[in-house]
Design a protein that fits this description.
It is a single chain. The strands form 3 sheets. Strands 4-5-13-10-11-12 form a 6-stranded mixed β-sheet, sandwiched between helices. Strands 8-7-6-9 form a 4-stranded parallel β-sheet, with helices on both faces. The protein has a 3-stranded antiparallel β-sheet with strand order 2-1-3. Helix content is about 40%, strand content about 15%. By secondary structure, it is of the alpha/beta class. It is built from 16 helices and 13 strands. About 55% of the residues are buried. The N and C termini lie far apart (about 70 Å). The protein has a domain at about 100-125 and about 225-405: Rossmann fold (3-Layer(aba) Sandwich). Helix 4 crosses helix 5, helix 8 (about 225-230) packs across helix 10 (about 260-275) and helix 10 (about 260-275) packs across helix 12. It has helices at about 45-55, 75-80, 100-110, 125-140, 155-160, 180-190, 200-215, 225-230, 235-240, 260-275, 290-300, 325-335, 345-355, 365-375, 400-405, 425-430; strands at about 5-10, 15, 30-35, 100, 110-115, 145-150, 170-175, 195, 215-220, 250-255, 280-285, 340, 385-390.
């Protein structure tokens, strides 16, 4: 079979076979990306839309292969055309809901708000979209060990998908005592070799990258461009959810910057293929305690800022040196994007407000929601703009921060009330409101 996929350096353009387990350019050391010869399929934009509509309208039953029920692999020719269908590892993932903001949007000043809830994936985060592609390609390459550094969600997804492949071992490096108990339990349950290191995420990332350079270990952080190919389907599926209407904005929380990179790449590909004809804008939002990408943006990207990330309830994006910075910078520029940041109070209040309206999103997701509201207040987002906020994980993975918020007397706190075990006490509480 003629290969439709190759790796290409984002800096010098050097090309490499996709079958090399490579995350860096051998010539200059920069990041590499996956490039597909998508035009070779010879389909028009209308034909692509018809194909994807047919797959969506006739979702097969449970007895069919999982990948045929996947919101990622619905677009399989454009995700990873060189991957044989028989080697796809799928749970299935994707097909997450796009929730209209309604009253939540009104409260935030966003009249046309939608929230794409990636916490509805199998391991409760968007990481599953990338991991189905990454683990499938690792299986195709014959890799036995797959590894990542993680702030929690990546480790859960890697462990879960690796557990699907006989003989494959998941290896996760975690900053000790800096992820939630719920996230840690996922890696443990799925049998991954779980290593808690006395450092932060950036320290874990340096070590796992060195491990992959010196041992036959396949790195599955978003530094691996194969993972990006699954994550780009977030934007595709959102547009499909909207009946092929392209939003004015995609607003994304930024940690390691893989998602904003992936969404931009996916949008570029659909624009080039004529599947969509409108170019949306991108907004990447960070927590104030971990804002190196925002600080770089504030210089006009004149310099790449790194920092020691501070304490934040948005622990999954507590990253001081985003690995995908060069790719994310490119996409922000190409899509007339902006980068913002929000305070702890802003992100926690946004999480509480969203959850009060039934969305069950995590603090990291709330960074994007609070950022969208701030951009609207600043006039960057216009009153009638259609805005898709990407919620990256489920609230249930972060119960500790939620419990602390509601016990602390914050703006939307809802603490439990202790009462005597009597009908009168319960009725009194009902009447008190």
């Amino acid at each position: 079979m003629t290969s439709l996929t190759r790796l290409s350096c984002v800096s010098c353009g050097a090309a490499f076979p996709a079958t090399e387990p490579r995350t860096e350019c051998g010539a200059c050391g920069s990041l590499v990306e996956v490039l597909h010869d998508l035009a070779s399929f010879g389909r028009s934009g209308e034909e692509w839309r018809a194909l994807f509509d047919s797959r969506r309208s006739a979702l097969p039953g449970a007895a069919t292969p999982a990948f045929q029920r996947s919101g990622v692999w619905r677009y399989r020719e454009l995700v990873f055309p060189d991957l044989p269908e028989g080697e796809i590892v799928s749970k299935p993932e994707g097909n997450t809901n796009l929730y209209p903001g309604r009253e939540l949007g009104r409260r935030l000043g966003l009249s046309r708000l939608f929230v794409k809830h990636e916490g509805e994936n199998p391991t409760l985060s968007f990481k599953d979209r990338g991991m189905t592609v990454g683990v499938s390609w690792a299986r195709h390459l014959g890799m036995r060990d797959v590894a990542c550094a993680s702030t929690g969600d990546t480790s859960a997804a890697l462990a879960s998908y690796a557990a699907e492949v006989p003989g494959m071992r998941g290896i996760v490096l975690l900053p000790e005592e800096k992820i939630t108990g719920e996230q840690l339990s996922q890696a443990l349950h799925h049998g991954a070799l779980t290593l808690g290191l006395d450092t932060d995420f950036d320290g874990c990332m340096r070590i796992v990258a060195d491990l992959a350079r010196t041992r036959p270990v396949y790195l599955l952080n978003s530094k691996n461009p194969v993972r990006i190919e699954g994550q780009k389907t977030i934007a595709w599926e959102a547009i499909h959810d909207l009946g092929w209407e392209v939003p004015d904005w995609f607003v994304v929380p930024v940690g390691n910057a893989g998602n904003v990179s992936a969404i931009g790449k996916g949008l570029r590909e659909w624009l080039e293929l004529g599947i969509v004809g409108k170019k949306p804008r991108l907004a990447g939002i960070q927590a104030e305690a971990a804002d190196p990408f925002y600080q770089s943006y504030a210089t006009g990207f004149a310099r790449r800022v790194t920092r020691v990330a501070g304490e934040t309830a948005a622990s999954a994006i507590r990253i001081g040196a985003p690995v995908s910075h060069p790719k994310a910078e490119r996409e922000v520029k190409l899509f007339d994007g902006v980068v913002g940041r929000v305070t702890e109070a802003e992100l926690l209040d946004a999480a509480a407000l969203a959850n009060r309206h039934g969305l069950a999103i995590c603090p990291n997701s709330a960074v994007a929601l609070a950022g969208a509201a701030k951009l609207r207040r600043e006039g960057v987002i216009r009153p009638d703009d259609l805005v898709v906020v990407v919620a990256t994980a489920h609230a249930l993975k972060f119960s500790g921060s939620a419990n602390r918020y509601h016990a602390g007397g914050a703006a939307f706190s809802n603490p439990p009330r202790s009462l005597p075990a009597t009908l009168e006490a319960v009725v009194g509480a009902l009447e008190a409101g």
